[in-house]
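Design a sequence for this backbone.
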């Protein structure tokens, strides 16, 4: 969905994110030109850079007015984004995705084998940068990559399972989404030299924001148009990934029909009917309420931080997230 990073309102954020872009471009240079081209594919495709933005904003929370962050913060922000992009390469192979960020996915352009290896290359580059920032950052990034794998495996094992619970769903989110957003904030705090209690506060913010972020993303997958999303709508259902709105709908008035539809591969009419059932029940509203609860939880630790532009921008990012969900799920 077309949507600017709300953290760009910070006075120095545009310049700092520009520094991240340079760091990303430098990190994907390889001796073999082909590997460099593949690794740079999604880097060059752009993106909202939410995770680097969170690292930068977290580092800037003590300062008002905001100032350019140290080079170490930029390096940490780039490392986090490289992990994110590398995980997208692997996700697209698993999902047989064709489009990512408005361009052909790496697996379509170069094949699955090259996509996997390029994803590994990006993770290795991220680890190399993290190692240059000290053992705590290096260990944190390594454990986060492990959590990403845990969350993705949980989701993969639940594929096609109409008995998936809300607890199962959130356990997967904890690894596949919340962990990296928490790490982005924590690395920003660590490399920015924040007091330990402030580092913990931004970490808690990022973790809770990650839950809200994924729930909203899953709502939009079922309620937004392909033009709004920039990718096919309702794709999770086709892949057998049953997210919170669907989990709730399966226990609703039309749950029996929905369960029957989802028990076999969906054709086009079945896919459209399943989306209609989910949209017409309580699942979207309940998922939005859950996302709001996580957004509120994200905002709570920010009250312990100085009331700077950066702190306010992090809080605004959580508010903006919920507004996105409302924009396509409530009548205008």
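Sequence:
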């Amino acid at each position: 969905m077309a949507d600017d990073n709300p953290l760009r309102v910070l006075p120095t954020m545009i310049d700092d994110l520009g520094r991240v872009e340079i760091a990303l471009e430098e990190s994907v240079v390889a001796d073999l030109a082909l590997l460099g081209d593949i690794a740079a594919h999604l880097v060059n495709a752009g993106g909202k850079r939410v995770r680097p933005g969170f690292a930068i904003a977290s580092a800037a929370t003590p300062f008002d007015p905001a100032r350019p962050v140290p080079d170490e913060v930029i390096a940490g922000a780039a490392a986090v984004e490289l992990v994110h992009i590398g995980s997208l390469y692997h996700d697209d192979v698993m999902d047989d995705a064709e489009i990512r960020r408005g361009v052909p996915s790496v697996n379509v352009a170069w094949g699955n084998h090259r996509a996997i290896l390029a994803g590994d290359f990006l993770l290795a580059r991220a680890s190399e940068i993290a190692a240059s920032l000290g053992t705590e950052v290096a260990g944190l990034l390594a454990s986060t990559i492990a959590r990403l794998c845990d969350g993705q495996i949980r989701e993969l094992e639940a594929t096609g399972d109409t008995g998936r619970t809300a607890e199962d769903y959130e356990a997967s989110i904890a690894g596949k989404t919340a962990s990296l957003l928490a790490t982005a904030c924590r690395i920003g705090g660590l490399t920015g030299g924040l007091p330990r209690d402030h580092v913990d506060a931004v970490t808690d913010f990022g973790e809770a924001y990650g839950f809200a972020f994924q729930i909203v993303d899953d709502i939009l997958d079922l309620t937004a148009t392909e033009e709004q999303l920039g990718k096919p709508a309702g794709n999770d259902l086709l892949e057998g990934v049953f997210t919170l709105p669907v989990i709730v709908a399966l226990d609703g008035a039309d749950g029996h029909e929905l369960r029957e539809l989802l028990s076999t591969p969906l054709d086009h009419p079945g896919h459209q009917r399943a989306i209609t059932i989910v949209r017409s029940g309580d699942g979207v509203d309940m998922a939005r309420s859950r996302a709001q609860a996580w957004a509120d939880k994200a905002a709570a630790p920010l009250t312990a931080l100085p009331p700077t532009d950066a702190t306010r921008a992090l809080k605004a990012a959580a508010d903006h997230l919920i507004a996105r969900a409302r924009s396509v799920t409530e009548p205008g």
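The domain at 6-329 is CATH 1.10.600.10 (Farnesyl Diphosphate Synthase).
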